[in-house]
Specification:
Shape: elongated
Distance between the termini: 19 Å
Radius of gyration: 18 Å
Helix content: over 70%
Number of strands: 0
Strand content: under 5%
Order of helices and strands: HH
Length: 78
């Protein structure tokens, strides 16, 4: 019969890191949405630099998501 471990409860600083990482994702996503709205308002024509700016903003969101997963994994890993 497998022996189950009790769930680990994060401490105060660990919980703060977990919440902070999620808030970081939300802030970067808001900035990315603002950047995309600004790019769409500047011109409706396709421009390579605008496409690159949007791609870099999306990459920043993805990096924050990866960081958040790493923080949660480190905190919750038994």
């Amino acid at each position: 019969m497998p022996r189950w471990r009790a769930a680990k409860t994060p401490g105060r600083w660990q919980a703060l890191a977990m919440v902070g990482s999620v808030l970081l994702v939300l802030v970067v996503e808001l900035l990315n949405s603002g950047l995309e709205a600004l790019c769409d308002a500047v011109t409706v024509e396709r421009h390579p630099l605008i496409g690159r700016a949007k791609d870099i903003g999306s990459a920043a969101v993805m990096l924050c998501l990866i960081f958040t997963v790493l923080v949660w994994a480190v905190v919750l890993w038994p």
